[in-house]
Amino acid sequence: MSPKKLKWGILGCAGIAKRSVIPGVQNSGLNEVHAIASRDLDKAKKTAEELNIPVAYGSYEELLQDPSIDVVYIPLPNHLHKEWTIRAAQAGKHILCEKPLALNEAEATEMAEAAAEAGVYLSEAFMYRYHPRYDMIRELISSGAIGEIRGIRGAFTFNNAGDINNVRYKKEWGGGSIYDVGCYPIHAARMLLGKEPVAATVNAFFSAEHDDVDMMASGLVEFEGSVALTFDCGMWAAFRNPLEILGTDGIIELPSAFVGSDNFYLIASGERKEIEVPNVNAYSLQADHLAHAIIHRSPLRFEPADAIHNMRVIDACLRSAREHIRVEL
């Protein structure tokens, strides 16, 4: 007999929810989307109808009061993550919160403490890390296929600058490219190296017409052992999202590291070999991983502490960019 599926509630009708996360949850094995809430009931009803969601609420509070909801997904603007994560935890709901988890390390710590006190799971929505290709990459690194890691290079850029009213361009709401997409290569480097950075230096382009958020940033994140991540991120540049892991004896290349499920390449012994990966939905895998932990009361693969550590690096990057200094962690 298959286990009873967990019921999810969605706080808000954000694009990432409608395009990716809701379909991913609906196509997962252990979950179903039961309700969606918006501060505009008509908007919630319209989205529910479009996505075949049974229940629509005209406020986030109503959804949290629904006793049938097991898990809440929070795709709200960054400055609302803390409030609604804590409120969801206090309502006894498990939580998947969009990245970045918070506006800073202190907020992330407070959110993790609230979840722990309520006895609920809190997970940050970095879906890419659940795709099996990253386990394959870690296995290649562990096997010595590229020798010792000498550096990691990553980027995530896109051009949405014409949408002036986008929430990404509101400084007080946690707007900017480091929050929105720079968090990906930072997280990937930490995950692949299995250690935390010691310093960060970032140069950024802050746009007056976009509420002074960083529209482009380039950075160096230093780790122990003289290994570093070099990265750039932007919201006013052509789209790309590659990742390169450079070793003493080879290279691992991901032309599309954070979006989709493309194959990657191993360059070693004078040969460039394409490594095929399963064509699976990382959003569904993310939902099922959280559900499995909830059902079996087992540890998350990425605990809230991981999100706290990532926010610490983001804090350092933003401070470095604003103050034009190298920030030690």
What does this structure look like?
It is a single chain. The chain is of the alpha/beta class and 329 residues long. It has 2 domains: 6-125, Rossmann fold (3-Layer(aba) Sandwich), CATH 3.40.50; 129-282 and 311-328, 2-Layer Sandwich (Dihydrodipicolinate Reductase, domain 2), CATH 3.30.360.10. 35% of the residues lie in helices and 29% in strands. The chain has 9 helices and 16 strands. It has helices spanning 15-26, 41-51, 60-64, 81-90, 105-118, 132-142, 177-193, 282-296, 304-323; strands at 6-11, 31-37, 55-57, 71-74, 94-98, 122-125, 149-159, 197-207, 213-223, 227-234, 236-240, 243-247, 250-254, 264-268, 271-275, 327-328. The strands form 2 sheets. Strands 7, 8, 9, 10, 11, 12, 13, 14, 15 and 16 form a 10-stranded mixed beta sheet that branches. A 6-stranded parallel beta sheet has the order 3-2-1-4-5-6, with helices on both faces. Helix 5 links the parallel strand 5 and strand 6 (122-125). Helix 4 (81-90) runs parallel beside helix 5. The chain is globular. The mean pLDDT is 97. This is Deoxyfructose oxidoreductase. Residues 6-125 form the Gfo/Idh/MocA-like oxidoreductase N-terminal domain. Belongs to the Gfo/Idh/MocA family. Residues 136-253 form the GFO/IDH/MocA-like oxidoreductase domain. GO terms for molecular function: nucleotide binding; oxidoreductase activity.
